[in-house]
Amino acid sequence: MLKANGYGHGANWVADTLGERAQGFGLARLCEALALREHAPSKRLLLLGTLVDDNTLKHCAEARLDLVIHRLEDAQRLSGARLTTPLSIWLKRNVGMNRLGMSHEDFVAAQQLLVGSKNVKEVIHMSHFSDADTPRAEVTEEQAERLFSSSRALGSFPLSLANSAAIIAHPHTHAQWQRPGIMLYGDDPTGTLTGDNALRPVMHFKSRIIALKTVYPGDGVGYGRRWQAREQRLIATIGAGYADGYPRHATDGTPLMVNGQRASLAGRVSMDLLTADVTDVDHVKVGDEVTLWGQGVSAAEVAERCGTISYELFTQVSSRVERYYD
Ligand SMILES: *Cc1c(COP(=O)(O)O)cnc(C)c1O
User: Fold this and answer.
1) Cα(187) to centroid(ligand 1), Å
2) Nearest C-alpha to atom 4 of ligand 1 is from which residue?
3) Separation of CA 181 and ligand 1 centre (Å)
4) Pairing relationship of beta strands 159-160 and 120-126 according to DSSP bridges
5) Atom of ligand 1 nearest to the CA of 167
6) What is the 3-state secondary structure (H, E, C) of 18-55?
7) Are the C-beta atoms of residues 227 and 220 closer than 8 Å to each other?
8) pTM value?
9) Euclidean distance between CA atoms 122 and 256, whole angstroms
10) For residue 177, what are the β-bridge partners?
């Protein structure tokens, strides 16, 4: 899954890096898919659940994009369209998320419309889990069974169910196609992979210390002086803020790495700057590199302190942050 610019990592770079190890790439917007088509002329690309109108269908045919059909009405539109090339269709069953996808009856009706259509080259059956990253395994089993039984009733078709969490935690959902997203970028949504199986972060979000200040008991730091010193402490001001994509809701104590040692956020994050208590970091000085997430401090851990998930942090790193690829 390379949607949202490869979860903020740069879709072209992710595509090149994965190369032949991926049989295809999934995108969420027509513009994303068309942009990646320019970069990867011969790769299989899938446009995920979107508004299916004549414009979408025309572009899918011209750019050779696979398309998710998630409503019976869209299947009708597709079967009645005049397309230059037939499409590979991923027919989506709603199995409990209640966001996109069809009931069993609509799924069957859509399938019947599409198998005989000159606009359809191939049909793959898919669904998406609501609870694969939670301990409620029985919910995922039930949801998987909904796709299995709808699909079985229609014959023998390639299936695609699993996102990262299901790939890691629910092997019975593995089928012809898997759809890994966040795990490609080094976060384990189940939090269960350890030791040799642990995932490594791909993104390292870094900045530098631009000032150091000693504060004394009763001194506050940042807007509203949210963080207050109880004793003499050393505060580093770092050149990153919410305009760079560091979450403004990060709480005091959110970890970051300075010189390979942990330090903690102290005070409200501002637009261009954030402040951290670096009293316990050895040999700290202006210019030192700071890792906001990446090696030594996972995006998941930072996200947890801000009431969000790594997906949101990765996708919100802003355009003014310089990217270095290696
Ligand atoms: C984003 C997405 C995925 C990948 O989910 P992860 O949790 O990132 O692995 C899989 N399937 C669909 C339909 C998606 O939109």
Assistant:
1) 13
2) 181
3) 5
4) parallel
5) 9
6) HHHHCCCEEECCHHHHHHHHHHCCCCCEEECCCCCCHH
7) yes
8) 0.96
9) 48
10) 160
Sign of CA dihedral 63, 64, 69, 73: positive
Burial class (CB in 10 A: 0-12, 13-18, 19+), 44: middle
**Structural domains of the chain sorted by starting position, each given as residue range(s) with its CATH number in brackets:** 3-192 (3.20.20.10), 205-315 (2.40.37.10)
Residue type, 216: Y
Q: What is the pLDDT of residues 137-166, one digit of tens each?
A: 999 999 999 999 999 999 999 999 999 999
Name the β-bridge partners of 236: 212, 276
Which residues have a catalytic role annotated? 3, 223
Q: Which helix (H) or strand (E) holds 205?
A: strand 205-215
Give me the mean pLDDT over the 98-116 stretch: 97
Full 3-state SS string of 141-195: HHHHHHHHHHHHCCCCCCEECCCHHHHHHCHHHCCCECCCCHHHHCCCCCCCCCH
For residues 247 and 269, what is the distance between their CA atoms, to the nearest angstrom? 8
For ligand 1, atom 13: residue with the closest CA: 128
Q: What is the length of the chain? A: 326
